[in-house]
Specification:
Radius of gyration: 62 Å
Strand order of the largest sheet: 2-11-10-5-6-7
Number of helices: 5
Distance between the termini: 204 Å
Order of helices and strands: HEEEEEEEEEEEEEEEEEEHHHH
Structural class: alpha+beta
Amino acid sequence: MEAPRTLGVVVATTSFVLLWSAGLTGSLVITPVEPSMFEKAQGEKVTLPCTFVLSEEDEGPLDIEWVLIPADNQKKEQIIIMYAVDRIYNHYYAAMTGRMQFTNPDPKSGDGSLDILNLKSADTGTYQCKVKKAPGVQSQKLQLTVHVKPARTKCSIEGPQEIGKDVMLKCASQEGSPLLSYDWRRVSGTQELPATSVLNKNTGELLLKNASQDYSGTYSCLASNRVGTDECSVQLNVTPPTNTAGIIAGAIVGTVVGLVVLALLVFCCCKKHRDKKYEKEVHHDIREDVPPPKSRSSTARSYIGSNRSSLGSMSPSNMEGYTKTPYSQVPSEDFERTPAQNPTFAPSKVAAPNLSRMGAVPVMIPAQSKDGSIV
């Protein structure tokens, strides 16, 4: 009997709590929204609805709050915008300053919906609308997901574009929120993918096995996600296999010709250098074989020195004949000329003072009489 009595107490208590909560909230009602999840593209605008109905029982001041609930439970809720005492406060959340506003400039009319402009991927999160008017209190949560459209999609070809080879067509978007999906189609020709093609929509790879010339044409790739698409195209040209042996032979011939030309250039440069060196050596040898010109001063000194020795060895008997020698002329380069070119000089007499200056030694000659006796 104790168990039924206890169960009755619990049921009664629960009923009392529910009745008390209903009385506490009054008749304030927020219009439910279905679905409660919103998906938008970056840069677009979203309106998060929050409409409500008041009754005569709700007599307190009206408060409307929009709160961002972080995914991390460790973080606190962030007030975005608030309406209280007939005034709007929108300076609480700096990340959305200038990008948010109440849809209705007068929220007390029953429309507390929120507009968010120029959406960013960071705006993704859970938003809660709270409406208070004592004694009524109601709230509603909405989920917002901001996607990035596919952009800067590029197509490429990997592998040799030859008959019988496997060719890989690749497609990738540099921007875009996951999950991205890729789809290839043929634009030209039959506009159908080859029978041997294998498509991977997650990676954007299209494998064309055992390619033939019929596979040639324009192929287009469409990248898409939940909020947008982007497209790129590529031209495929399948050709016969190249003559590898001919290419190698041509490369070898070209290399040999290049080496020959280089060797000729080196040879010409070396020969030109040797010729210049030979000309310099020959010119130097010719200049060394030519005797240096004799100066007038050295010739004169040699001549005067020889006269001094000659005068020193003269005796009185040949003194008279020496005075007739043309020693007063200083030898010069004219003496080196041929006899036909040398001019004829008249003999001149040299005075005794001049002989002394020229280095002659005076000799005392004894006087003689007419009969030959010494005086």
